[in-house]
Amino acid sequence: MRLCSFVMVAFLASGLLPWLAAPEAQATDGGTLPPIFERFAAGDPERGPTVNEVPNFQKHISPLMGRLGCNGRACHGSFQGQGGFTLSLFGYDFDADYKALMEEDSSRLDTRDVTASLILAKPIDADVHEGGQRFQEGGWEYWVVRKWIEAGAPYESRQIEKLSRLEVLPNELQFTDSKQTQQLQVIAHWENGTSEDVTCLSRYQSNDTSIAEIDEAGLVTSADPGDTHVVISYDNAVVPIQIIRPASLELAHNYPPLEFNTEVDRLVLNKLRKVGVLPSDVCSDETFLRRASLDVTGTLPTAEEVIAFENDSRPDKRHAKIEELLSRPGYAAQWTTFLCDITGNNDDQLNNFMPQGVSPANQWYRWIYSRIQDNVPYDVLVEGIVTATSRKPDESYREYCEAMSEICRDATGEKFAERPGMVHYWARRNFQSSEDRVVGFAYAFLGVRIQCAQCHKHPFDQWAKSDFENFERLFTGVQANQNTRGSDAKRVMDEMLSELEIDKSLKGNLLRRELAKCLNEGGTVPLPELVLRNEPVRTKDKNTKTAKGAETRKAKLLGGEWVNLDQDDVRSKLMQWLRDPNNPYFAKAFVNRVWTQYFGVGIVNPADDLNLANAPSNAPLLDHLAAGFIASNYDMKWLHREILNSDTYQRSWLANDTNRLDKKNFSHALLRRLPAESTYDAVRMALASDEYALRAQELDIDRAITRSGASARAPGRDDESYALSVFGRSVRETNCDCDRSSEPSLLQTVFLINDTAVQSWLSDPRNSWVSSVGRKLQLGQTEPAVSKSTSAETPPAMQGFIKQIQRLDDRLDEAQAQGNETLVSQLQEKRSELRKRAMSVARKNGQQDQLRALMGETSSPDPESAAETTASAIGSQDLEWLIDQAYLRTLSRRPDNSEISLAKKYFEEEESPTAAIEGLMWSLVNTKEFILNH
To answer: Which of 128, 406, 520, 762 is the most buried (most CB within 10 A)?
Structure first.
């Protein structure tokens, strides 16, 4: 019969059984205690080790279960456990794990018949244990567990010790060949001044097994050239160790003296020297201009801009161009979109906060845009979000409603941008619980994925469930939805509803609809506002309760100090903590994300996952940028300049023999597919007339980068919405940068090749470049001539045109029957335009004759088309100018001789000059060079 373990523990705690409670081992010389496998090595397999030591549950038993995989996801650490036995994932909760082990009638621990304890009997028997044999009977692991049980399985939660630091030696490994090995040593330093070698109790993983592997004992084995980290975990500590195997040993020892002009370049070259990699040369002027224009402003440079930059002989012309780009409206639009992604500007999540017809998403966009345009410091911009309040100081509820009613009638959102705070961030429907807020806040402003700690200790970081809950309390008092109003607002709201003659019993959308009517008529309507509910919050963390039902009045900053919740608005403390120069996340998260936008890969990658295991590829570089950003008073343009003016940013994408495989050390530019918004705008502007493109560059017309909100549920049916969806625009639904996709797809190819939008941009008689060239060169009609080839199948896009033309024909018949000459004229014009677009698609598929047959026409060209100038009749000088311009406006460079020859041959073979120009432009926007930023 088993002795009740709880009674045994009580005796141990009271000191009544001192002969069983032997002290923990201490190093005799005051140094580091040797590893436990040495201390518990069995000289006699029957009697075991002669050590006079009781293993510690926190320091030895729990870590050992972690190392053996007992508390892993696939075993007892899963939510449902295994065989009725559940442990906390990765052993984060000592109390819960001890309670599970000591559960009565479970036979997991038997202090009377120790060898019958299941935690001893099962792991040594592969036939009985579903997890297989975890250790051998008589091995050191066996005796550690057995000696602990023999001592009464002691554990006292009040005696949990704090780990000061985890030291790993060596702290960096450099290999010269594959299959070389190096043993790590892991030393735990405790707050009480003791230390112990815990190499055999730690958990290990490699971030890239193709470069280095590590076994359960901490032995690292090298593989392919490159650099990565191995991660060591023990207790609540996570330590990454860099592993390097140079691509070239000769370069690693004899690196050439390379010049550098910026600190960014010095730090990057230092890392490249370690990994034996030479950087690529600096890119050409044309490549730099195109890359910087797209990265900074989301806009292709115009042909004239490329020529002007090419002819600029100033030595600092790249620096000057950077300054020019940072002053353009496209810069503000591009980086507003970036911040809207991060902060979650989503139409679906905001559609109930304001009266119907008002766009909070647009107000959100304009609020950020105005601050980026004015170069407001990043911390000040964030403060306007984090500490946002609906009312200005000393503003009454009625005064607030008067001001906001006027703002809501401003469709541009510019008046809202004048408000000091951006409340909409807190009003999202997916941001109403404190759990949602803490996860979203950590993602947006800290670059930390803390959601794992909501249920268990973060597997790759220091955060435990208690850290999550303590931090979460900072967000419990903020409320913002369609029904939230201050305590003084209820009476005023009733008065306003009476004045507006609105039924006070109306709720939800019915009330919003009536308010929208009054708002549109110029009235002042009662509006919701952000409120702070300074109410007691019941703790979920049993360790912070002072008594049954006690209420906690404090919260804790993530890795920081405790905050008193009794103050008016604890968000001010939150902002103060963000601004603290010692904050390990705020500046680094923004710096790393901006770097990722420019290079396609972060210094920490993924960029939204700053955790201890996900170490930076170049820590000194990240530290330099973050420190400089803080020293500049969070000047966003300082950060852009620091990156853009470096040779590192201006490297060519052409690799050399040493850096061909480098993807994370910034030795050469990585080819990056353009973001969805830039793709759409680039195609539209490349195919548009010069006048249209210039207006688009100045944001005088709507652009994809000025689109405010996002929606996964109702993305829109227009060409722009469809294209942005196809090219992976962020839907801003989750707390993850992965909401935006840069992956290629078949739909993207189909869109560029065959979508009706692209075809219409090519042949638009008013705004297309092709039409403007036709007028300039007096090429006559823009109707394409009959192609010599045909195809058996009708492409889907052409089928769509046929259906649209047939519907227009039906309407045309009705209008003619009614004698409505105005409508007949309009429909005929629409049909003519649609036919031209359809013919353009048909020509690219060799199906002009088939299209004409489907439309009931003859296969011969129209009389006016027959009179058109042939492509070969274009003068040589005009043709060279035309080809040159086509390349400049799409690829931002001049064509080489072979490309000129190929284009001329194409023009000679094509019967219609307009068709030839369209074909050339269509071909260029369908090249990889166009769709990629290089």
So the answer is: 762
Average pLDDT over residues 291-313: 97
Q: Is 261 exposed, middle or buried (0-12, 13-18, 19+ CB in 10 A)?
A: exposed
What total number of domains does the chain contain?
4
Give yes or no: residues 291 and 385 share one domain: no
How far is it, in rounded angstroms, from Cα 121 to Cα 630? Answer: 58
Q: What average pLDDT does the segment 196-219 reach?
A: 95
- Any domain includes 557: yes
Phi, psi of 231, rounded to the nearest 5 degrees? -115, 130
Structural contact between residues 768 and 687, judged by C-beta atoms closer than 8 angstroms = yes
The verdict on 641 and 546 lying in the same domain is no
Beta bridge partners of 240: 231
Question: What is the amino acid identity at position 261?
Answer: N
23 & 143 share domain? yes
The answer to whether residue 172 is domain-embedded is yes
Distance CA 384, CA 739 (A): 25
Q: Indicate if 140 and 173 belong to the same structural domain.
A: no
The answer to the question of residue 490 being in a domain is yes
| CATH number for 198 | 2.60.40.1080
Examine the domain organization and report whether 225 and 143 are in the same domain: no
Share in percent of the chain as helix, strand, coil (round to 5) = 45, 10, 45
Residue 437: C-alpha distances to residues 426, 428, 475, 633 (Å): 8, 10, 6, 27
Last residue in a domain, options 103, 135, 159: 159
Question: Which pairing describes strands 237-245 and 172-174: parallel, antiparallel, or unpaired?
Answer: parallel
Q: Which domain holds residue 219?
A: 163-253
How far is 592 from 607, CA to CA, in rounded Å? 6
From residue 540, give the alpha-carbon distance in Å to each of 225, 440, 454, 469, 550: 48, 20, 11, 7, 11
Instruction: Tell whether 82 and 176 lie within a shared domain.
Output: no
- Dmax over CA atoms of the chain, in Å, equals 113
Q: What is the DSSP letter of 371?
A: H
Distance between CA atoms of residues 519 and 602, nearest Å: 46
Residues 25 and 111 both lie in one domain: yes
pLDDT tens digits, 842-863? 766 666 667 766 666 544 444 4
Cβ atoms of 786 and 859 closer than 8 Å:
yes
Cα atoms in the Cβ-side hemisphere of radius 13 Å centred on 85: 24
Distance CA 426, CA 424 (A): 5
Is residue 630 in some structural domain? Answer: yes
Alpha helices in 585-675 (DSSP H): 586-599, 619-631, 636-644
List b or e across 403-431, with b for residues whose CB sees 16 or more CB atoms inside 10 angstroms: bbbebbebeebebbbebebbbbbbbbebb
595 lies in the same domain as 575: no
In the numeric block, which tokens belong to residue 527?
Answer: 């509006």
Gap between the Cα atoms of 200 and 38, Å rounded? 10
CB 189 within 8 A of CB 164: yes
Mean pLDDT of the chain: 86
What is the H or E stretch that residue 802 is in?
A: helix 796-818
Task: Say if residue 554's pLDDT is above 50.
Answer: yes
Distance CA 295, CA 827 (A): 43
**What span, in angstroms and rounded, lies between the C-alpha atoms of 865 and 868?**
5
Query: What is the SS3 assignment for 121?
Result: helix
Burial annotation 503-531 (CB, 10 A radius, 16+ → b, else e):
eeeeeeeebbebbbebbeeeebbbbbbbb
- DSSP string covering 766-806, please? TTBHHHHHHHHHT----PPPPPS---SS--HHHHHHHHHHH
Tracing tokens 């008013």 back to the chain, one arrives at 766
For the cut 50, the answer to whether the pLDDT of residue 788 exceeds it is no
- How far apart CA 877 and CA 898 sit, in angstroms, is 17
Place of tokens 């292709």: 300
Distance from chain centroid for Cα 741: 9
Check pLDDT > 90 for residue 108: no
Quote the CA–CA distance of 399 and 526 in Å, as a whole number: 10
Distances (CA, A) of 750 to 719, 743, 744, 746, 924: 14, 15, 11, 6, 15
The DSSP code for 409 is: T
